[in-house]
Amino acid sequence: MVSLRRFLLSPFFGVTLIVVLVAFFFRSSLRSPQHQRLFSAEELALYNGTDETLPILLGILGSVFDVTKGKSHYGSGGGYNHFAGRDASRAFVSGNFTGDGLTDSLRGLSSSEVKSIVDWRGFYSRTYTPVGKLIGRYYDSQGNPTKHLKGAEAKASRGAQLMEKQKTEEDKQTNCNSRWSQDEGGEVWCDVGVPRLVQRPLEIAITGSMSKRCACFEEDQLDQSGLEIYKGCEPLAKTCKV
């Protein structure tokens, strides 16, 4: 008891208590919506998981989240540590985690890719604690959304609308069944009708590139323009090798 009393009265205990309290109130202030702060890029970089006394923060589309509870992933040596202490929005869809790939620029991305990044922001909003905004591309020095953020959100919204429209259109024509094996390769087939390759006209607006899909058409539909027979497949065959 005497030893404990001496420890409690010692200067060392007082300093330790102050450090703990400062860290507690610092973290509490970060997590309070009323005290969400504005970060510069240089300030955010301090929270990259290398300093054990600081929380781990991550930015996406200018929103900053405390991901400390995912320390095993975002901390030093973690698989997602490249996201910590910065806004690397582009890398969420590009998969480029080095050099110029770790950027918040969405230049050249398709509407579906931008939508995916907005969806990732939604994931962090649901899973982690928002602690502030990053001053720069998406928020100004007063914490107001910039034209870049509004543009990204509008592009994501257009992408969602186009994807829904594409799904509605494609649901009108049944997709082919398909399978693949290492021994036999791939094949497509239709339970009703015959397989045809058909353009996906909305795809270029959604992803930035044109693509085709396999759909099933009955014989009285085969005079439609734009239908392509699989190479080496009989015109009325129900199954085609691919």
UniProtKB/TrEMBL annotation:
GO MF annotations, alphabetized: steroid binding
Nucleotide-binding as UniProt keyword: no
The UniProt entry, under Gene3D superfamilies, shows: Cytochrome b5-like heme/steroid binding domain
So where does this one cross the membrane? 7-26
**Which SMART domains did the record assign?**
Cyt-b5
Q: Which Pfam families match?
A: Cyt-b5 (PF00173)
Q: Which UniProt keywords apply?
A: Lipid-binding, Membrane, Steroid-binding, Transmembrane, Transmembrane helix
Output the InterPro entries linked to this UniProt entry.
Cyt_B5-like_heme/steroid-bd, Cyt_B5-like_heme/steroid_sf, MAPR/NEUFC/NENF-like
Q: Name one GO cellular component term.
A: membrane
Domain (Cytochrome b5 heme-binding) ranges: 39-135
Q: Does the keyword Cell inner membrane apply?
A: no
Family stated for the protein in its record: Belongs to the cytochrome b5 family. MAPR subfamily.
- What's the name of the protein? Cytochrome b5 heme-binding domain-containing protein
From which source organism is this entry? Eutrema salsugineum (Saltwater cress)
> What are the top taxonomic ranks of the organism?
Eukaryota, Viridiplantae, Streptophyta, Embryophyta, Tracheophyta
